[in-house]
Design brief:
By secondary structure, the chain is of the alpha+beta class. It has two domains: 116 residues, Rossmann fold, CATH 3.40.50.10330; 135 residues, Sandwich (Tumour Suppressor Smad4), CATH 2.60.200.40. It is built from ten helices and 15 strands. A hairpin with a 2-residue loop joins β5 and β6. The radius of gyration is 20 Å and the shape is elongated. The chain starts with a strand and ends with a strand. The longest helix is centred in the middle third of the chain and has 16 residues.
């Protein structure tokens, strides 16, 4: 097996370097791999450029080692290359939502076992305004938290860095909303919204199984909207209560949002779609996010590319 490794040495958990060294050594010594080449990124888009340059049959596997941003870059490069080389993810970031959702290993022994067993799954990816993403497209409330959290804080404090920044930004975020027009086959609406998530896997924002219907190979993404209902609710107090909910309670509220106007909790709306469009009269001021990285501004159109990437997975899922 010939393997190309693309690694971000500055990803959140820098001790992943030791795991990567163990993985490379074991794969070579065991004979599972005959050739392993390593490219360490130095700047943004290095991972995209490296993956985009790959040729069909040049390698049997690409290992992307880094956080959600690095994985996003590799995905975009692979799609650009047209090489159809399978992907393995060695998560080394702060949140690692997609890897967490699929229970992808980050310890050397388990990762090498996964490579040796060679189980693959064709997964969906998203395309937002021409750029691909593997897990989430979002905008609105708390989207800027990840952008405002500096890398050094992430490296030292991990997820706590996001929580601390979220507390700092909460008063402003709770008071804001975005006038939107939302168009899809399953749901059309016009009004004020606080948050929009378009998600591939169950895990987002380090909350496991938040998108409880999600399946990474089903050809649709799960959408969660948080709507403004200030006429009927004391909004700030209501949202503060939601922030204190236990996961099970939060999931119940989200599930109730499926019935829209008859929902027990009218703040949420949850549905699945393969195509959705967002426009806003204040679009230029609305910052969007793909896989935890700043992307651009509204308007935004999201399409699902069904089973576009072949992903290496553990043989027990």
């Amino acid at each position: 097996m010939r393997i190309q490794v693309i690694v971000n040495p500055n990803a959140g958990r820098r001790n992943i370097q030791k795991q990567l060294e163990k993985i490379i050594g074991r794969l070579l010594l065991s004979g599972v791999a005959s050739d392993i080449r390593v490219l360490a990124t130095k700047a943004r888009q290095d991972a995209t450029k490296a993956a985009a340059a790959l040729l069909p049959d040049q390698f049997d596997l690409v290992i992307a080692c880094g956080g959600d941003g690095t994985i996003n870059e590799v995905i975009n490069g692979l799609m650009c290359s047209g090489s159809h080389i399978p992907l393995a993810i060695l998560a080394a970031g702060t949140s690692n939502d997609f890897a967490t959702s699929l229970r992808l290993p980050d310890e050397a022994d388990a990762f090498c076992d996964m490579v040796q067993h060679g189980c693959y799954r064709d997964i969906d990816i998203g395309c937002a305004n021409g750029r691909y993403f593997i897990n989430v497209a979002s905008f609105g409330m708390f989207t800027e938290v990840a952008h405002n959290t500096v890398q050094e804080q992430k490296n030292v404090f991990g997820l706590l860095a996001y929580y601390l920044q979220g507390i700092k930004d909460a008063p402003t975020e709770l008071a804001s909303s975005i006038p939107l027009q939302i168009c899809s086959e399953e749901y059309n609406a016009e009004g004020d919204f606080h948050l929009c998530l378009v998600v591939n896997s169950m895990s987002v924002g380090s909350i496991r199984k938040l998108m409880y219907k999600a399946d990474v190979s089903d050809g649709v993404f799960d959408v969660l909207l948080l709507r403004k209902r200030s006429r009927n609710l004391a909004l700030q107090q209501r949202l503060e209560q939601l922030c204190r909910l236990q996961p099970a309670e939060l999931f119940a509220r989200i599930k109730s949002g499926e019935s829209d106007e008859t929902a027990r909790d009218p703040l949420f709306h949850y549905f699945q779609t393969a195509h959705i469009e967002f426009t806003s009269p204040v679009g230029e001021s609305v910052e969007t996010d793909l896989d935890g990285e700043a992307f651009g501004h509204l308007p935004m159109t999201v399409d699902v590319k069904k089973q576009a990437i072949r992903l290496l997975i553990p043989n027990n899922i």
